[in-house]
Known about the structure:
The protein is of the alpha+beta class. The protein has helices at about 10-15, 110-115, 170-175, 185-190, 200-270, 275-290, 295-310, 315-325, 335-350, 355-360, and strands spanning about 5, 20-25, 30, 45-50, 50-60, 80-85, 90-95, 95-100, 105-110, 120, 125, 130-135, 135-140, 145-150, 155-165. Mean pLDDT is about 75; it is low at about 310-315 and about 355-360.
Amino acid sequence: MSATIFSNADLIAAWNSGELKIERMESGQYVPVPQTSIAELNRASEVQPASLDLSIGRIFQPPEEQWDPSKLPEEPPFKTGHEIAVGGTVVVETRERLSLSGKIGAFGFPPASMAKNSILMTNPGHVDPGFEGHLTFTIINMGRVPYDLKFGGNLATLLVFGFDAPVVPDYAALAKTADPEPNLMAKVLNRLSPDFADFEARSEKSAINAAEVAIAARTKALGEEVEAARTQYQNAERKYNIHALVWPAVTALGAAAITATVSYFVAASGFANKDTLDAVDERVETLEENQVLPDNIDALSDRIDDLQRAAVAPETVASLNERIERLEGEELLESLDERLQALETAIEVLGSGAETPEASE
């Protein structure tokens, strides 16, 4: 026995001879597809150059919760159009109902339009000679976006072949000897998950895991930034503490040197020379420009201003003495008070017209 793949002409001949019969659902009723002549072949959308196209009919969804096996519905609910979600599963029945003679069989393939949209058809296979009824296909959306199943859209392509003699027994003969399985569609749907391999839950878990990884990475980066800021602060704090220890000492030494110079000139010459005081003021300004703790320098500058005024107004020396007392807590400035006291005495002598002890000698 030999077999031949049918061309479009062979399909039309089998159609017209009654060896291939097709009924199509129209408004809930199955209507025989009229015989087609070769001249009308281009208008017969079912027939391709070497294949036969079948379309989407009833669409069955698996139940969210499994049915009680003892109470399966005889006719499960169906749709004639459905948007299948990502990871979703459905069982789709062909719109056409076939009747094949014992000489004709077929192989089923998913159409390219579904395959390129990541729609997986799990059970395309062969159709035995003598088959009568619908073909059913389990479909899974393996893509990233929902897919719209429309009534009458392409569902499967049949590659039809014919033998030169009928097979014995054919499918119809075998089906008559077997007891029909009740609630077959309901059993199929009850075994099928509505969400392929729990795709939706796994996607949600993957999204949560990705978010946790991103949060952990950001937390680590923020921790590193905080640690860098802490190190920078500690370095600045150490540097500030060094200045806090060194610069008061430098200020005190500078102040003592300035005071000693002023005291020397006042004691030796009997009056405070303006040029000398200007020079002292410049030295204070120099210290002030290089000082990171300007409060001590400001106090010294104020004292020098008081000394300048004391040359003509000795009574202002008292306020200078009060400012000096504020710095008594600084160990290196203790000798400054003694020198300034000597300066007070010299200024008082100038105010009375008497000579300093050093000048009288």
